[in-house]
Amino acid sequence: MDRTHTISIAVALLVSGSLTPAQSVVATPAGLRLETTEGDDQLAMGWHFGQARTFGSWADSRHQYCDAELATGQPRVLRAFGFRHDYTNFDATTGNGRSWTQVTLSINELDYSAMSATFANNRVAPTAVFGAPVSWPTLSGLPATKPAPFHPALIFPFAVPFLYGGNKAILTDWVFRGGTLASGVWGTQSVWYALDGVTCLDNMSTAADLHPPDNGCNDPAAGSGLGARMESAFLQFSKAHASSPDQVVIPVTSWFTAPGAAVIQGIGLGGSPTGVSIGADCNNLLLDFRSRVFLHPTQASYAPGAPSPTLILRAPRNQVTLGLDVWLQAAWTRTSSNRLALTRAARVRAPAGFGLTDVPPRKRILFVSTSVNSPTGTLTTEIDTAQHPVCFYGL
After folding, report:
1. What is the dihedral of CA 391, 153, 93, 195, to 10 degrees?
2. If DSSP codes are grouped into helix, strand and coil, which group holds residue 203?
3. If we measure between CA atoms, which residue out of 321, 331, 329, 376 comes closest to residue 351?
4. By C-alpha distance, which of 66, 65, 58 is closest to 100?
5. In a domain, 141, yes or no
6. Rounded to an integer, what distance in angstroms lies between the CA atom of residue 223 and that of residue 258?
7. What is the mean pLDDT of each run of 10 residues along the chain (395 residues)?
8. How far apart are CA 200 and CA 37, in angstroms?
């Protein structure tokens, strides 16, 4: 079944110097009109906009984006490519206007499995479809509608149509040059712009709850008021993910203990939001040692406020690992008192049916370079693990 959702919309395309209504568009993912799941901050792993924020975030950059969601066997004639703004409360950080002296876009078909970090290898008989100065507006406050309305500045009309066969992924190759910010000098740093993104459904995740919910206390040498804590999330990667195929993955990290301190991370299958006092600083012991508890000794970073190394736990994705409460808590010696201290605990549960439903994969990869002349790019995040832009192809 074709998972795309084709509808007619009234957006302005700059064609031959005049404004012309678009015929129709196809959106990937297919949630163009699903306002409860598209169009706002649907966070996969706590990142605002995820990979959607990286487009247009540098004065000079190159992006290659591989999108296989239209590979349904249906040929199409593509005439434009576009984004929309995120439904967020825009401020000076997320809505800072910008202009480039030149943005170029070429497009070609590519086997999704062949996508690599070497830009030239991904260009298979590309067609140059766009080349012009581009300006994105300064925004403030919430958009007028949810999802945000289409804005002509985020639409890239093709100079020539692209004939898409429908069996391979679509590779778009973007080069941004000569960028300036509305607020002043851009320099070499990234400055986000909040484009709408959507969570990849082949990587479902659930964030941990912190107990106690307030900031608690941290080591004075940690240099943060966020409170010493543990963090984790359950992640179910797609079967095709090379590092953890068809597994439940639990990254475990402790934060804001003393720099360089010995830290014992505890991971258990039982716990309590109130716990019991053992005379330690900061928090009660929330792990229940009557259940199975795994203790992992590690050392915090020597940089104030930095985390300890992340422990990665993996388990087969099956009904045994679903629905379990996993509790995480760490201990260290507090600098100010030379006493045992306990971090806030994190509790995370893989919900029923987690990763077992037949959800369509989000086959998207994005490589970025902050140098337009670099032969290679880097992943902004892991493949298929975060927010990807909501994309629109004009037909």
Report:
1. -10
2. coil
3. 321
4. 58
5. yes
6. 9
7. 30 32 64 41 33 76 84 92 82 87 96 84 94 94 80 92 94 92 86 73 62 83 84 61 61 90 93 93 94 92 86 71 81 93 88 48 65 71 51 83
8. 12
Judge if 217 and 272 occupy the same domain: yes
| C-beta neighbour count of 33 within 10 angstroms | 12
Judgement on whether residues 320 and 180 belong to the same structural domain of the protein: no
- Indicate whether 302 and 154 sit together in one domain: no
Q: What tokens appear for 328 in the block?
A: 């995480």
Q: What share of the chain is helix, strand, coil (3-state, %, to 5)?
A: 5, 45, 55
Output phi, psi for 218, to 5 deg: -125, 170
Neighbours of 382 (CB within 10 A): 14
What per-residue confidence (pLDDT) applies to 68? Answer: 82
- Are both 142 and 280 inside the same structural domain? no
Question: For position 52, what pLDDT does the model report?
Answer: 58
On whether both 193 and 216 belong to a single domain, the answer is no
Q: How many CB atoms lie within 10 A of CB 142?
A: 13
At 379 the pLDDT is: 58
Domain assignment present for 354: no
Q: What is the pLDDT of residue 42?
A: 34
Contact between 156 and 55 under an 8 Å Cβ cutoff? The reply is no
Nearest of 102, 95, 100, 99 to residue 53 by alpha carbon: 95
Is the residue at 375 inside a domain? yes
Structure tokens at 296: 């992992």
CATH number at residue 266: 2.60.40
* Same domain assignment for residues 258 and 276: yes
Give the model's pLDDT for residue 21: 38
Name which of 231, 271, 232, 233 is nearest 255 in CA terms. Answer: 231
Helix (H, G, I), strand (E, B) or coil at 144: coil
How many structural domains comprise the chain? 2
Whether residues 330 and 369 share a domain: the answer is no
What residue has token string 């990807």?
Answer: 388
Q: Is the pTM above the cut of 0.70?
A: no
**One-character DSSP codes across 212-247:** SSS-----GGG--SS-SEEEEEEEE--TT-SSSTTE
If asked whether residues 236 and 103 sit together in one domain, one would say no
DSSP 16: T
Residue 92 domain flag? yes
What residue numbers bound the domain in which 293 lies? 204-349
The pair of structure tokens assigned to 282 is: 């900061």
